[in-house]
């Protein structure tokens, strides 16, 4: 039987996370399945696409929306893994991100971690996955999120002093909102 492509590989949702963002509090969505298999990865159990639960992206979105605005305060959203942009995950991740942005506008920041580099993602060939075109998903996600942390974890470059990163090859790519508009700048720190 063909699996419904709207089912997401969800390792877990952390509702009040102060570690995986650089300001305030965030809700963290951990996606299962990773093709990179970095040496000494901190979450090797998340390489398995079946780790955790299969949840419909609608339910994932509902749970995230509720958690982001719980108790009358807004939280940011962080999406980690595993590999959120793995071909098995990217279409559902894009739908969830779009929904969150539509609900909260620019009032919250969306962070996403990937083991791919942004250069690889932009060059990756077009093909269909999860009912969507891979490169269209990449383009939509990059337009919608605020912060991309890219690159594989490289154990020889491990540095515990780095903000949001495990190794120094990884980069924090920021899109800064210009107040009141959708115009954004990209900068690498
Ligand atoms: S990309 Fe992340 S989850 Fe995947 S193997 Fe590397 S460190 Fe682990």
Question: How would you describe this protein?
Answer:
The protein is of the alpha/beta class and 189 residues long. It has one domain (7-183). Helices cover 23% and strands 27% of the residues. The chain has helices at residues 57-68, 90-104, 118-123, 134-144, and strands at residues 7-17, 26-31, 53-56, 76-81, 110-113, 128-129, 132-133, 147-150, 171-177, 184-188. Strands 3-1-2-4-5-8-9-10 form an 8-stranded mixed β-sheet, with helices on one face. A two-stranded antiparallel ribbon has the order 6-7. A hairpin with an 8-residue loop joins β1 (7-17) and β2. α1 packs parallel to α2. The protein is globular and about 40 Å long. Residues 34, 36-38, 41, 43, 46, 81-83, 115, 152-153 line the site of iron/sulfur cluster.
SSE layout:
Blueprint: E1 7-17, E2 26-31, E3 53-56, H1 57-68, E4 76-81, H2 90-104, E5 110-113, H3 118-123, E6 128-129, E7 132-133, H4 134-144, E8 147-150, E9 171-177, E10 184-188
Parallel strand pairs: 2-4, 4-5, 5-8
Antiparallel strand pairs: 1-2, 1-3, 6-7, 8-9, 9-10
Iron/sulfur cluster binds next to loops.
Helicity, in percent? 10-25%
Protein structure class: alpha/beta
Share of β-strand residues:
25-35%
**Largest β-sheet summary:** 8 strands, mixed
Number of domains: 1
List how many beta strands DSSP finds.
10
Provide a count of the helices.
Answer: 4
Hetero compounds: iron/sulfur cluster
Strand sequence of the main sheet, in spatial order?
3-1-2-4-5-8-9-10
Shape: globular
SSE succession: EEEHEHEHEEHEEE
Based on CA atoms alone, the radius of gyration comes out at: 16 Å
């Amino acid at each position: 039987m063909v699996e419904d492509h709207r089912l997401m590989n969800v390792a877990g949702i952390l509702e009040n996370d102060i570690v995986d963002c650089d300001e305030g509090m965030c809700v963290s969505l951990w996606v299962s399945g990773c093709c990179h298999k970095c040496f000494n990865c901190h979450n090797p159990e998340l390489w398995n696409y079946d780790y955790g639960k299969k949840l419909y992206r609608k339910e994932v979105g509902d749970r995230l929306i509720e958690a982001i605005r719980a108790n009358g305060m807004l939280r940011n959203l962080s999406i980690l893994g595993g590999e959120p942009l793995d071909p098995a995950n990217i279409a559902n991740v894009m739908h969830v991100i779009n929904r969150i942005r539509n609900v909260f506008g620019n009032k919250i920041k969306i962070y996403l971690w990937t083991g791919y580099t942004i250069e690889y993602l932009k060059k990756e060939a077009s093909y269909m996955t999860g009912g969507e075109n891979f490169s269209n998903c990449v383009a939509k996600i990059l337009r919608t999120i605020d912060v991309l942390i890219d690159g594989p974890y490289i154990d020889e470059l491990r540095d515990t002093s780095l903000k949001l990163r495990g190794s120094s090859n990884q980069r924090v790519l920021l899109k800064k909102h210009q107040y009141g508009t959708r115009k954004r700048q990209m900068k690498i720190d």
